[in-house]
Design goal:
The complex is a heterotrimer of chains A (180), B (291) and C (792). Chain A is of the alpha+beta class and 180 residues long. Helix content of chain A is 33%, strand content 14%. Chain A has six helices and five strands, in the order H-E-E-H-E-E-E-H-H-H-H. The radius of gyration of chain A is 18 Å and the shape is globular. Chain B is globular, with a radius of gyration of 19 Å. The chains are: A alpha+beta (180), B alpha+beta (291), C alpha+beta (792).
Chain lengths: 180, 291, 792
């Protein structure tokens, strides 16, 4: 929508109060007027059209909607959009650089860490936060960190391998060494 | 999946928040971590007309350890901060044992310790830990602050002792009377499940004897259960197989579980007994090893 | 130089998946990602009670809310003859309830509004008055003489029985039991479970009044069946219906049936002439859409003292919920239940099966399963363990003694199935070797002395995958074949479309590998498309591990048709007769002079630019494949566990899987399927179930109570393989997707039961919750998991 035209739907919006919020999403400042009850997941998906963030359940269990809020994974279905005002949000669309994939993305492909792909964005973001905090995790560390994200297809073994693969690669890059 | 409409306010100070709660009458809700409240809104099990979001109030996210061993936990201290605290592991093993077992790792990034206490879910982990430690909630209202022992805070399922315009601003854990030992055992079918049963048992040891003890029980009644008689029976003597066994029996008597899809009432009572025994036996053998 | 098939991503290549490139970037296109201009949103009001007469529905307040466009009730559906719809099992199912609600979560009304928040607000403003009736939640209750009649809408329905069915040789079986040395008996319940893909069901119906065309984007594992159903039910012309299944976030059978939400969204779009999106929430998905299992068994085995099985006798009672809408295409009322014991050489067997209505959600689906084979194999392997115990025989030895031998194929099973290949003994040996069977038995004995309870469980089975053949398998009369259409462009690149529909199985990757194998066109040069009924050839979709056996075979066959035409083009280019041309991978050459040849790509160019007289231009074709038989993969799963005697909690120590699914197209993907299946097996054994209380309230209708295991609990898996090619499949492949879900649960349960040996326990129903295990262990009793659950 440009500023030249904004359709007014009086009967729907009426006197519902909205708030103006500004969020840094994948490094870009974006603003919106939102009803307070709007969930962050819905703002990201329907408002900002970043549909890589999925919603899988209604009870805060599945983690398909996981995004990073100031670098920490949160379930974006369990946060109001207004609460993200002034914060930095990273979604799966912000994971890759301009031309190349993030090692976590490469790892998921290389180790067959996904099947239907629905849980994958949330898994990868949780994995990113883990590797940011703990660059050299054990298999147990990875399994523990991923326990808030459900996958129905893979049985997790390859997801764990994918995260370890990415950790190896990131450490290799940090040391200036060859990728494994 | 779609919360009902509500008025939303995000005050910058505690006083403003209290003012808003006063205006809201009994129906306003405080939004801290939101990891219990927002799911209730999404399922439309709750529809408060006013949400008072305290996340923008500065100075509430502390986790402070005093020299005497007492601990202060601010209203916006997230579970993850407790889980990652090295100092907590050293200072207060009972809390440290529970910190990683609350909900799941992502929920722990957002959910708060104090919020969990105030939510007063009989299946909540932290209230039992605080009962075991003799901890309190500091509530602030129009007339100032008061301290409420957590054992008196929880009234029933999702009912706490706060007045409608009080905010739990901090939780406090008293200084141990000796070496603080203990543990938290939770029977859950998988990470993120509510406890079938969980037990928090804490003992302070001074000169080989129990100087203070507390036992809190999860999911075996309409509120967090305080096995105070069981705890009291331990005080004054060393931990022996006999004292442990009798405390475990007393704790199981306090448990008033109901049968459900997680297990039968009898089984849950048995687990209380088993977990009390296991935690205290572990403490006892760690003492033997140290001696 | 002959092409290296692995280098072009042919058979046996673990080529990385093509589809991943979009998924890892968050660029998948799932149904909820699709936004159409002017799109509205639909929400469904569901019954809060299990069984009740509807006295009154008042929608006034909902209609009055700003932003509400339409409120649909059963009455409005009835006016259009859409209040009821036919099911895939020749019953009827309510779309929106008119007379009664028959299960908790049943669809009662719909609201269409400008956004889903408003739709949900309006749902809450619909007032329904119910007169609550007693609820029935088990076959035992349903068959009781005084049981209330659930389906009083059906003219000739006098009780709650759906079917009484039998198969096998009763007289022969009775005779065998009469001369048995030992009769082993066991009773159990396979609990109701839900496939529960992480993505729920949903649809966007888009009816265009100007063109009269209806497009429906939806989560369907079988879009062509949906098109046929819409054409038949809604009486719309089939060519004006386009069903598109975009990316699907997991199916596992849940997304096969036609659900009321789809139908209501279609009607809403027709009435409003705007696109209408319906996305189910998780609670609705778990409470109302196709479940799996919920079958009770009484099993008996006639045994000779030396361990030979003489006969098997089984009776099942199955709970189908309020409407018989099982999504199964066989002619057999209880699906392929009688494929049970197919890997064992048994002279005679008899099965009776009774199906009943209850006040529970309808739609028994083949949850990662081929129509009751999961129950069939679970019952089989639990019965086998009980029999081995009754005989005091080693469980591995008992199996080996009764296996169909490698030289006995083709083998007709006691229930009439024809198995065609396998090396059962070898698979078992590989598994026992991998787990270190003898060492574990010693370890177990040692551990017992220290009060530790270790157990080992084995599950071996062959199962029929890949419906169908058209003689015995159809859906509403449509035969269970499948199809592939291959179009080779002039530069030798190609597009392939099939009638299957991937939901994570990796068709976009593996179908290209079959083309590479057949034509030598690199897999990366083949674009695979599925799921759009306007472009894909007619096919029956993806479930029951049928894609590789049927659609995959069609891919081979269509590629061979292309190769036959390319041969003519090659002959023309080489100025030789077809008989003098020989094929090597990716190239034709002159017989006796391999240096003179043309590549498949050169043939493709010729098809558009340099044709012999009389040859039709272009290089494309379509193949419809009707398999001569099902495929029969074999599996041996072995689990070891430790049970905590103080709590009944059990932990998995190791899991070994030996799968023989014939030729593996992409080993990486095959292993991914096996690990996913093992995880669901573990989940069913350990935590995942839906039950009901006495009032018919669904327990397990959300992710707080319906537990899927996380990365933390899920054990590690050790995979092994044996390869026995399928004799009738063009590339020797067999189905694999569901094997581990089917065969796996018994391995875990048998392991726990093995650990409890000596406690006088014969059976604990899944899931083996700690309290059930503890009760069985301490009270020395079997533990039933049958509803109703009594909450105190």
């Amino acid at each position: 929508m440009t500023s030249l035209f904004e359709e007014i739907t009086p009967e729907a919006s009426g006197d519902v109060p909205t708030r103006k919020i500004t969020i840094s999403i994948n490094g870009e400042q974006r603003s919106a007027n939102v009803e307070p009850r709007l969930l962050l997941a819905h703002l990201i998906r329907q408002g900002f059209k970043l549909t890589g963030t999925h919603t899988g359940c209604d009870t805060t269990n599945c983690g398909a909607c996981t995004v990073l809020l100031d670098g920490e994974p949160v379930k974006s279905c369990t946060m109001l959009a207004v609460q993200a005002n002034g914060h930095e949000v990273t979604t799966v669309e912000g994971l890759a650089g301009p031309s190349e994939l993030h090692p976590i993305q490469e790892g998921f492909k290389d180790e067959h860490g996904l099947q239907c792909g629905f849980c994958t964005p949330g898994m990868m973001l949780t994995a990113k936060a883990l590797l940011d905090r703990n660059p050299d995790p054990t298999e147990e560390d990875v399994r523990w960190a991923l326990a808030g994200n459900l996958c129905r297809c893979t049985g997790y073994q390859n997801i764990v391998k994918a995260v370890l693969w990415a950790g190896d690669k990131l450490r290799g890059e940090a040391d200036g060494g060859e990728e494994s | 999946m779609y919360p009902p409409r509500f008025r939303y306010e995000a005050p910058q100070t505690i006083d403003e928040a209290i003012q808003l709660l006063s205006e809201g009458g009994g129906d306003a809700k405080i939004l801290a971590g939101g990891q219990s409240l927002i799911p209730l809104l999404k399922l439309r099990f709750a529809s408060p007309p006013l949400l008072v979001d305290i996340n923008e109030i500065p100075g509430l996210d502390h986790l402070d350890f005093a020299a005497d061993g007492s601990i202060r936990i601010g209203a916006l201290c997230r579970h993850a901060a407790l889980e990652r605290s090295e100092e907590l592991r050293v200072r207060q093993p009972t809390m440290a044992a529970a910190a990683g077992l609350v909900a799941d790792p992502i929920v722990r990034n957002r959910g708060t310790f104090v919020g969990s206490l105030c939510h007063a879910d009989p299946q909540g982990d932290w209230a039992a830990v605080m009962v075991a430690l003799g901890g309190s909630l500091v509530a602030q209202g129009p007339n100032g602050r008061r301290s409420i022992p957590v054992k008196d805070l929880v009234h029933g399922p999702f009912q706490n002792a706060l007045t409608h315009n009080e905010i739990g601003v901090e939780a406090t854990v008293p200084a141990p009377q000796g070496t603080p030992l203990g543990g938290y055992l939770k029977l859950e079918r998988r990470i993120g499940d509510f406890a079938t049963v969980a037990v928090a048992a804490s003992v302070d040891i001074e000169g080989g004897a129990v100087s203070r003890a507390g036992i809190g029980l999860v999911a075996v009644g309409s509120k967090t259960m305080d096995a105070s008689d069981a705890a009291a029976s331990l005080v004054g003597g060393p931990l022996t197989p006999e004292s442990i066994s009798s405390a475990a029996d007393l704790a199981a008597e306090v448990a008033k579980p109901r049968s459900d899809h997680r297990g039968s009432a009898d089984y849950k009572k048995h687990i209380v007994r088993t977990f009390v025994t296991r935690i205290l036996t572990r403490v006892s053998s760690s003492l033997e090893k140290a001696a | 130089m002959v092409l290296d098939e692995l280098k072009i991503g042919g058979l046996g290549s673990s080529r990385r998946r093509v589809e991943d490139d979009r998924f890892i970037r968050g660029k998948g296109n799932y149904v909820d990602d699709i936004v159409l201009p002017g799109m509205l949103h639909m929400e469904i009001l569901r019954s809060p009670v299990a069984h009740a007469r509807i006295k009154k529905i008042d929608t006034t307040r909902a209609w009055d809310m700003p932003g509400v466009r339409l409120v649909l009730t059963g009455e409005m559906m009835a006016a259009r003859n859409l209040a009821w719809m036919p099911t895939l099992s020749y019953d009827t199912q309510a779309v929106l309830a008119t007379d009664k609600v028959r299960f908790q979560g049943q669809e009662v009304a719909c609201v269409v509004a400008d956004d889903p928040y408003i739709a949900k607000d309006a749902i809450e403003a619909i007032d329904v008055e119910y007169e609550v009736l007693p609820a029935i939640v088990s076959p035992e209750q349903a068959l009781a003489p005084e049981a209330p009649l659930i389906r009083d809408d059906k003219a000739n329905q006098q009780d709650n029985v759906i079917f009484d069915w039998e198969v096998g040789d009763k007289a022969g079986t009775d005779a065998a039991f009469a001369r048995a040395d030992v009769v082993s008996k066991i009773e159990m319940h396979y609990p109701r479970s839900h496939p529960s893909p992480i993505e729920t069901c949903g649809s966007i119906a888009d009816f265009d009044r100007a063109t009269e065309k209806l497009t429906v984007y939806m989560t369907s594992q079988a879009p062509h069946i949906i098109r046929a159903a819409v054409a038949l039910v809604a009486e719309l012309p089939e060519h004006m219906i386009r069903i598109v299944s975009p990316d699907i976030g997991g199916g596992f059978g849940n997304k096969v049936p036609v659900y009321p939400g789809y139908v209501a969204s279609i009607l809403a779009s027709i009435l409003l002439e705007r696109p209408v999106k319906w996305i189910e929430d998780k609670t609705s998905n778990l409470m109302s859409t196709g479940f799996g299992r919920d079958v009770y068994l009484q099993g008996e085995m006639a045994l000779r003292a030396d361990g030979k099985i003489l006969a098997v006798r089984m009776h099942t009672d199955s709970d189908h919920g309020a409407f018989f809408s099982d999504a199964q295409p066989s002619k057999f009322k209880i699906g392929l239940m009688h494929s049970t014991f197919a890997c064992y050489d048994i002279p005679t067997a008899h099965l009776t099966a009774k199906g009943v209505y209850t006040n529970k959600a309808p739609g028994g689906v083949a949850y990662r399963c081929s129509f009751r084979v999961t129950e069939a194999m679970y019952f089989q392997e639990r019965m086998v363990q009980a029999a081995a115990d009754d005989l005091g025989m080693d469980q591995a030895e008992f199996r080996r003694r009764n296996f169909v031998r490698d030289d006995d194929f083709p083998h007709r099973t006691a229930f009439g199935f024809l198995t065609d290949s396998g090396q059962y003994g070898k698979c078992l040996d590989v598994g026992l070797e991998a787990i270190g069977y003898e060492d574990f038995l010693k370890e177990k004995e040692e551990a017992a002395k220290r009060g530790k309870l270790l157990g080992i469980g084995i599950s071996t089975m062959t199962e029929p995958l890949g419906a169908g053949n058209s003689r015995e398998y159809d859906i509403l009369g449509i035969k269970m074949f499948d199809s592939a259409e291959l179009r080779v462009h002039m530069t030798g690149k190609a597009i392939l479309r099939t009638g299957a529909k991937t939901q994570g199985q990796g068709h976009e990757t593996t179908w290209g590998q079959i083309v590479a194998h057949e034509l030598g066109i690199p897999a990366e040069d083949v674009l695979v498309e599925e799921g759009d009924t306007d472009t894909a050839p007619f096919g029956m979709g993806t479930y029951a591990s049928r894609s590789t056996p049927v659609a995959g075979a069609a891919v081979s066959m269509v590629a061979r048709k292309i190769r036959a035409k390319a041969r003519k083009l090659a002959a023309h280019l080489l100025e030789a007769s077809e008989e003098d041309i020989e094929w090597e991978l990716g190239r034709f050459h002159l017989r006796g002079d391999p240096s003179r040849g043309v590549t498949i790509q050169e043939c493709a160019m010729a098809a558009y630019s340099n044709l012999p007289d009389g040859l039709e231009p272009g290089l494309e074709n379509v193949a419809y494949y009707d398999p001569p038989n099902l495929t029969w993969p074999f599996a041996c799963y072995i689990a070891t566990v430790e049970v905590d005697p103080g709590t009944g909690v059990w932990d998995v120590l190791r899991v070994v899987a030996v799968d023989d699914c014939g030729v593996r197209i992409n080993p990486m993907i095959v292993e991914g399927q096996i690990m996913g299946g093992l995880t669901e097996a573990y989940a069913m054994a350990n935590m995942q179930f839906i039950t009901f209380d006495e009032e018919g309230n669904c327990i397990g209708g959300n992710y707080m109570d319906y537990l899927l295991p996380t990365a933390w609990e899920t054990p590690g898996f050790e995979l092994h393989e044996v390869v026995t090619p399928c004799p009738h499949h063009p590339i020797g492949a067999k189905g694999i997707g569901e094997c581990a879900t089917v065969g796996g649960p018994a391995a875990f349960v048998n392991a726990v039961m093995d650990a409890l040996k000596g406690h006088d326990v014969r059976n604990i129903d899944m899931p083996l919750l700690p309290d059930r295990v503890y009760k069985a262990m301490t009270e020395r009793t079997d533990v039933s998991g049958a509803p109703p659950l009594r909450m105190e």
